[in-house]
Fold this protein.
Amino acid sequence: MRLTAEMTLKRGDYNCFRNSFCGMEFFPEHKHCFFEFFLVISGVLLHRLNGVDYRLNPGSIQLLQPGDAHALRSADPGGQVEIYNVNVASHEFLKNLYFVSPSKGNILLDGVQIISGVPDYEWRSLISKAETLAVHQHEVHHSAELRYSLCRLLTQEVIYLLLRRNARETHPVVPWLENAMREMEKRENYLNGFPRFVELSGRSPEHLCRTMRLYYGKSPQQWIIELRLQNAAVLLEHSSMNVSGIAHASGFCNLSYFRRCFQRQYGIAPLAYRRKLHDCD
Protein backbone atom coordinates (compact mmCIF):
# COMPACT_ATOMS: atom_id res chain seq x y z
CA MET A 1 0.00 0.00 0.00
CA ARG A 2 1.31 3.44 -0.92
CA LEU A 3 -0.08 6.61 0.67
CA THR A 4 0.23 9.83 -1.31
CA ALA A 5 0.23 13.39 0.00
CA GLU A 6 -3.14 13.93 -1.67
CA MET A 7 -4.64 11.04 0.33
CA THR A 8 -3.20 12.00 3.72
CA LEU A 9 -2.42 15.74 3.76
CA LYS A 10 -5.91 16.97 2.96
CA ARG A 11 -5.74 20.02 5.24
CA GLY A 12 -2.41 21.45 4.13
CA ASP A 13 1.24 20.55 4.56
CA TYR A 14 0.83 18.86 7.97
CA ASN A 15 -1.42 16.30 9.60
CA CYS A 16 -1.24 15.33 13.30
CA PHE A 17 -3.39 12.68 14.96
CA ARG A 18 -3.37 10.23 17.86
CA ASN A 19 -3.34 6.50 17.14
CA SER A 20 -3.72 3.45 19.37
CA PHE A 21 -3.16 -0.26 18.77
CA CYS A 22 -4.94 -2.72 21.08
CA GLY A 23 -4.03 -6.38 21.38
CA MET A 24 -3.60 -7.85 17.92
CA GLU A 25 -4.61 -4.69 16.05
CA PHE A 26 -1.97 -3.38 13.66
CA PHE A 27 -1.33 -0.97 10.82
CA PRO A 28 -0.26 -3.00 7.74
CA GLU A 29 2.94 -2.34 5.84
CA HIS A 30 2.74 0.71 3.62
CA LYS A 31 4.82 3.40 1.95
CA HIS A 32 4.14 7.08 1.44
CA CYS A 33 5.37 10.06 -0.55
CA PHE A 34 6.00 12.41 2.37
CA PHE A 35 7.94 12.62 5.63
CA GLU A 36 6.45 11.27 8.84
CA PHE A 37 7.47 11.13 12.47
CA PHE A 38 5.75 9.71 15.51
CA LEU A 39 6.04 10.02 19.27
CA VAL A 40 5.42 6.89 21.38
CA ILE A 41 3.19 7.94 24.29
CA SER A 42 2.55 4.61 26.05
CA GLY A 43 3.11 0.90 25.57
CA VAL A 44 5.89 -0.71 23.55
CA LEU A 45 5.61 -0.30 19.78
CA LEU A 46 6.89 -3.00 17.45
CA HIS A 47 7.87 -1.07 14.34
CA ARG A 48 8.91 -2.93 11.19
CA LEU A 49 10.91 -0.50 9.03
CA ASN A 50 12.26 -1.60 5.66
CA GLY A 51 12.24 -5.24 6.80
CA VAL A 52 13.88 -4.68 10.20
CA ASP A 53 12.00 -4.81 13.53
CA TYR A 54 12.52 -2.13 16.19
CA ARG A 55 11.03 -2.01 19.70
CA LEU A 56 10.20 1.57 20.68
CA ASN A 57 9.46 2.41 24.31
CA PRO A 58 7.47 5.40 25.60
CA GLY A 59 9.43 8.59 25.06
CA SER A 60 10.78 7.47 21.66
CA ILE A 61 10.78 9.42 18.39
CA GLN A 62 10.93 7.82 14.94
CA LEU A 63 11.46 9.71 11.67
CA LEU A 64 10.40 8.18 8.35
CA GLN A 65 11.37 9.37 4.90
CA PRO A 66 9.46 9.16 1.60
CA GLY A 67 9.69 5.63 0.24
CA ASP A 68 10.26 3.91 3.59
CA ALA A 69 8.11 0.79 4.07
CA HIS A 70 6.80 0.26 7.59
CA ALA A 71 4.17 -1.49 9.69
CA LEU A 72 3.11 -0.89 13.30
CA ARG A 73 1.71 -3.09 16.07
CA SER A 74 1.92 -3.53 19.83
CA ALA A 75 4.95 -5.53 20.97
CA ASP A 76 2.69 -7.06 23.63
CA PRO A 77 -0.29 -8.99 22.16
CA GLY A 78 -2.26 -8.22 25.32
CA GLY A 79 -1.21 -4.59 25.60
CA GLN A 80 -1.95 -1.27 24.00
CA VAL A 81 0.28 1.29 22.30
CA GLU A 82 -0.52 4.97 21.80
CA ILE A 83 1.38 7.32 19.52
CA TYR A 84 1.12 10.79 18.05
CA ASN A 85 1.66 10.57 14.31
CA VAL A 86 2.68 13.63 12.27
CA ASN A 87 2.74 13.69 8.45
CA VAL A 88 4.71 16.48 6.77
CA ALA A 89 4.80 17.34 3.07
CA SER A 90 8.30 16.76 1.69
CA HIS A 91 8.92 20.36 0.63
CA GLU A 92 7.79 21.60 4.05
CA PHE A 93 9.97 19.15 5.99
CA LEU A 94 13.04 20.06 3.95
CA LYS A 95 12.34 23.75 4.46
CA ASN A 96 12.26 23.18 8.23
CA LEU A 97 15.35 20.97 8.10
CA TYR A 98 17.50 23.59 6.42
CA PHE A 99 16.03 26.34 8.58
CA VAL A 100 17.18 24.51 11.71
CA SER A 101 20.61 23.61 10.33
CA PRO A 102 21.59 24.88 6.87
CA SER A 103 25.00 23.22 7.06
CA LYS A 104 24.07 19.81 8.51
CA GLY A 105 20.64 19.07 7.06
CA ASN A 106 21.75 16.15 4.90
CA ILE A 107 22.73 14.17 8.01
CA LEU A 108 19.09 13.30 8.68
CA LEU A 109 18.57 11.96 5.18
CA ASP A 110 21.07 9.14 5.73
CA GLY A 111 20.25 6.16 7.94
CA VAL A 112 17.57 5.17 10.45
CA GLN A 113 16.54 8.05 12.69
CA ILE A 114 15.34 6.95 16.14
CA ILE A 115 15.67 8.62 19.52
CA SER A 116 14.90 6.91 22.82
CA GLY A 117 14.90 8.51 26.23
CA VAL A 118 14.19 12.14 25.34
CA PRO A 119 14.74 14.36 28.43
CA ASP A 120 11.51 15.00 30.32
CA TYR A 121 11.31 18.75 29.76
CA GLU A 122 11.85 18.34 26.01
CA TRP A 123 9.39 15.46 25.80
CA ARG A 124 6.71 17.49 27.60
CA SER A 125 7.18 20.29 25.08
CA LEU A 126 6.70 17.89 22.16
CA ILE A 127 3.66 16.17 23.66
CA SER A 128 1.99 19.47 24.56
CA LYS A 129 2.16 20.68 20.96
CA ALA A 130 1.12 17.33 19.47
CA GLU A 131 -1.85 17.08 21.84
CA THR A 132 -3.05 20.57 20.96
CA LEU A 133 -2.82 19.79 17.24
CA ALA A 134 -4.51 16.39 17.48
CA VAL A 135 -7.38 17.64 19.66
CA HIS A 136 -8.17 20.80 17.72
CA GLN A 137 -7.26 19.98 14.13
CA HIS A 138 -10.87 19.57 12.97
CA GLU A 139 -12.29 22.55 14.87
CA VAL A 140 -13.17 25.57 12.79
CA HIS A 141 -12.22 28.10 15.50
CA HIS A 142 -8.69 26.71 15.71
CA SER A 143 -7.17 28.83 12.94
CA ALA A 144 -5.10 27.45 10.10
CA GLU A 145 -2.43 30.03 10.95
CA LEU A 146 -1.95 28.70 14.47
CA ARG A 147 -2.08 25.05 13.34
CA TYR A 148 0.64 25.79 10.81
CA SER A 149 2.78 27.59 13.41
CA LEU A 150 2.49 24.76 15.95
CA CYS A 151 3.16 22.06 13.34
CA ARG A 152 6.19 23.95 12.11
CA LEU A 153 7.52 24.42 15.62
CA LEU A 154 6.92 20.76 16.56
CA THR A 155 8.69 19.59 13.41
CA GLN A 156 11.65 21.88 14.06
CA GLU A 157 11.97 20.63 17.64
CA VAL A 158 12.03 17.01 16.44
CA ILE A 159 14.61 17.89 13.77
CA TYR A 160 16.76 19.64 16.38
CA LEU A 161 16.66 16.58 18.67
CA LEU A 162 17.59 14.26 15.81
CA LEU A 163 20.44 16.50 14.70
CA ARG A 164 21.71 16.71 18.27
CA ARG A 165 21.61 12.91 18.59
CA ASN A 166 23.54 12.55 15.32
CA ALA A 167 26.13 15.10 16.40
CA ARG A 168 26.67 13.28 19.69
CA GLU A 169 27.08 9.93 17.96
CA THR A 170 29.52 11.35 15.41
CA HIS A 171 31.36 13.57 17.89
CA PRO A 172 30.39 12.89 21.52
CA VAL A 173 29.65 16.23 23.16
CA VAL A 174 32.56 17.42 25.24
CA PRO A 175 31.63 17.57 28.95
CA TRP A 176 32.48 21.25 29.37
CA LEU A 177 29.96 22.26 26.67
CA GLU A 178 27.26 19.94 27.96
CA ASN A 179 27.67 21.28 31.49
CA ALA A 180 27.71 24.90 30.34
CA MET A 181 24.54 24.42 28.26
CA ARG A 182 22.77 22.78 31.18
CA GLU A 183 23.59 25.80 33.34
CA MET A 184 22.61 28.24 30.59
CA GLU A 185 19.09 26.79 30.49
CA LYS A 186 18.52 28.45 33.86
CA ARG A 187 16.77 31.81 33.49
CA GLU A 188 19.29 33.74 35.58
CA ASN A 189 22.01 32.64 33.17
CA TYR A 190 20.43 32.99 29.72
CA LEU A 191 19.22 36.48 30.66
CA ASN A 192 22.90 37.44 30.96
CA GLY A 193 23.53 36.23 27.43
CA PHE A 194 26.68 35.27 25.60
CA PRO A 195 29.19 36.67 28.17
CA ARG A 196 27.69 34.41 30.83
CA PHE A 197 27.86 31.42 28.46
CA VAL A 198 31.55 32.12 27.86
CA GLU A 199 32.13 32.40 31.60
CA LEU A 200 30.38 29.10 32.32
CA SER A 201 32.21 27.29 29.52
CA GLY A 202 35.66 28.32 30.70
CA ARG A 203 36.70 28.67 27.04
CA SER A 204 37.38 31.61 24.77
CA PRO A 205 34.45 33.11 22.81
CA GLU A 206 35.97 31.80 19.57
CA HIS A 207 36.41 28.27 20.96
CA LEU A 208 32.82 28.23 22.26
CA CYS A 209 31.43 29.40 18.91
CA ARG A 210 33.38 26.78 16.94
CA THR A 211 32.30 23.98 19.26
CA MET A 212 28.62 24.98 19.24
CA ARG A 213 28.60 25.00 15.45
CA LEU A 214 30.30 21.60 15.33
CA TYR A 215 27.73 19.91 17.58
CA TYR A 216 24.56 21.91 16.99
CA GLY A 217 24.99 23.75 13.69
CA LYS A 218 24.22 27.13 15.25
CA SER A 219 25.95 29.93 17.10
CA PRO A 220 25.74 30.39 20.89
CA GLN A 221 23.80 33.61 20.31
CA GLN A 222 21.20 31.81 18.17
CA TRP A 223 20.72 29.17 20.84
CA ILE A 224 20.37 31.77 23.61
CA ILE A 225 17.69 33.57 21.59
CA GLU A 226 15.82 30.27 21.27
CA LEU A 227 15.92 29.82 25.06
CA ARG A 228 14.56 33.33 25.55
CA LEU A 229 11.81 32.78 22.98
CA GLN A 230 10.78 29.54 24.69
CA ASN A 231 10.42 31.47 27.94
CA ALA A 232 8.41 34.15 26.16
CA ALA A 233 6.05 31.55 24.67
CA VAL A 234 5.40 30.08 28.13
CA LEU A 235 4.67 33.54 29.56
CA LEU A 236 2.34 34.38 26.67
CA GLU A 237 0.34 31.25 27.40
CA HIS A 238 0.35 31.22 31.20
CA SER A 239 0.76 34.84 32.39
CA SER A 240 -1.22 38.07 32.09
CA MET A 241 1.87 40.21 31.39
CA ASN A 242 1.75 42.44 28.32
CA VAL A 243 4.02 41.75 25.35
CA SER A 244 6.48 44.47 26.31
CA GLY A 245 6.83 43.06 29.82
CA ILE A 246 7.27 39.54 28.49
CA ALA A 247 9.97 40.68 26.07
CA HIS A 248 11.86 42.37 28.89
CA ALA A 249 11.38 39.41 31.27
CA SER A 250 12.77 37.09 28.58
CA GLY A 251 15.93 39.11 28.01
CA PHE A 252 14.97 41.28 25.03
CA CYS A 253 15.75 44.98 25.43
CA ASN A 254 14.23 45.95 22.07
CA LEU A 255 10.53 45.20 21.58
CA SER A 256 10.69 45.37 17.79
CA TYR A 257 13.60 42.94 17.73
CA PHE A 258 11.69 40.57 20.04
CA ARG A 259 8.67 40.65 17.74
CA ARG A 260 10.81 39.92 14.68
CA CYS A 261 12.55 37.00 16.41
CA PHE A 262 9.26 35.57 17.68
CA GLN A 263 7.61 35.86 14.25
CA ARG A 264 10.57 34.14 12.60
CA GLN A 265 10.62 31.29 15.14
CA TYR A 266 6.89 30.65 15.55
CA GLY A 267 5.48 32.01 12.29
CA ILE A 268 3.03 34.26 14.15
CA ALA A 269 3.19 37.54 16.10
CA PRO A 270 3.40 37.28 19.93
CA LEU A 271 -0.02 38.82 20.62
CA ALA A 272 -1.68 36.68 17.96
CA TYR A 273 0.03 33.60 19.43
CA ARG A 274 -1.49 34.36 22.85
CA ARG A 275 -4.92 35.15 21.42
CA LYS A 276 -5.11 31.98 19.34
CA LEU A 277 -3.98 29.76 22.22
CA HIS A 278 -6.63 31.25 24.50
CA ASP A 279 -9.26 30.87 21.77
CA CYS A 280 -8.60 27.11 21.90
CA ASP A 281 -9.30 26.79 25.62
About this structure: Residues 1-7 have pLDDT under 50 and may be disordered. The longest helix spans residues 144-170. The chain is about 50% helix and 20% strand.
